[in-house]
Amino acid sequence: MGRFRDALAGEGLRAIAEVKRRSPSAGDLRPDADPGALAKAFEENGAAAVSILVDDRFGGCFDDLAAARGATTVPLLAKGFFDDQGDLLQARIAGADAALLLLRDLSDEQARLMLAGGRELGLDLLVEAHDADELERATALGADIIGINARDLGTFEIDRRAQLELVAAAPRDRVVVAESAIANRAHGAEAELAGAHAILVGSALMRAEDPGARLAELVARPLVKVCGLTREEDVAASAEAGADLAGFVLAESPRRAVAPLPVPETMLSVAVCVGEAVDVDTDLVQLYPEEEGHRARNGVLLRDGEAVASVRDLPWLGNDERHWEDAAAASGRILLAGGLSPENVRAAIEAVRPWCVDTSRSLELSPGVKDHSRTRAFVASVRSPQGIPA
What we know:
Helix content is 32%, strand content 24%. It is built from 14 helices and 22 strands. A hairpin with a 3-residue loop joins β2 (22-23) and β3 (27-28). The longest helix is centred in the first third of the chain and has 13 residues, at 108-120. The radius of gyration is 22 Å and the shape is elongated.
C-alpha cells in the first residue's frame, strides 16, 4: 500500500483532480493547460491526489507528469492506455505514485503481470471497471483500488445510476473511486453514500474559469439540507442558493408535502418519515422512530434501506443545551438538525464538524413557505468561514 492509496483511504470523501487538455468525447477542454500550475492549485484547494493524462489523445504526455511532480507534493496518478511494463516504468520515472489499468483492454493474465510489475516499482494501481463483469474481475485479481467509471469508453455514454450500483456492490475492504460525470456536490455525495472513498473529477474542472476554486466548491463540507419544502419555487430558490439536499416531510406536520417535488441534478431528494420509511422514489430517506405520536429525537439517513448517516436532532418541540456537544461526540457521518439558522449555523459547524446541516423553520415566512432571502443567508453562512456576509 502506497501514498496514493493512503491518501484516498482516510475519513470523508476524497477528490482526485484531473489535468487533461482534451477528451475524445468532448473535444478541447483546456488546450493551454499548465499541469504544474494546475497541480499546485488543486493541492491548495483540497485535492487528495492529482491525475495526469499522459496519452496524446487527451493532449497529454509524460512531460506533463514530470511538471506536476515538480509543483506538488500530493500523490500523482498517471492515466493512459497502459498494457506494457515499460509504460509503468516510464510513469514511475516521471514521478507517478500510481497508474491506471483499464480492464477493458487487458486480459486477466495481462492485468496480473501489470499489477505485479507496478508493485515492484512501488506504484499503486487503480484498476478500472465499468460493468459488473469487470468489477468481479478486479475483485478476483486482488485489486486494492478499484475505479468505477460512469462512462463507457467504447460509446462514451454516461450511466451514473449503473455506476452507483457498482460502487455499492464493490467489496468494502477495497478503496473505491467513482470516476467521470461528477459535476456538483450532490453527485459527489451520491457516490460517497453508495460507498466511494473518492471521486475523480476532470472535465468539470478543466471547463471552469478557476479550476482550483471549482474543486474547492465540489469538496466543500458540510452539505446543506433545506427541509420542509412544499412549493416548487422554494425548491428552485434553495437550489439557486446552493443547497445540496431537499427535504420533504411525509409525516403529520404543518410542513407536510403532498409528495416529494422534482429537484434539479444539483440536489438530492430526501423523504422525511416517522415510524416507517415510505417508498416514494427519493434519493434518500430520513427516518425517525415514533414516540408518543411524534418523532423521536434522533434518526438515521437511509440509502436503499441502509443507514449511511446519523441524524442528530433536538427533542420534539424541546431544547437541549448539550445538543451540539453530544452531536460532536457521535461517530460517523453526522446530519445535524434542530434549531439551525443563518445566525447560529456557523457556530454549530465549528462545534460539531457535521457532514450535513439541516434547517427548516428558521427559513420560513409561514409553515411550509420559505423566505428566499433567509435561505440564501443560511447557505452563505455555511459556505463562508466568517459567517453571514455583510
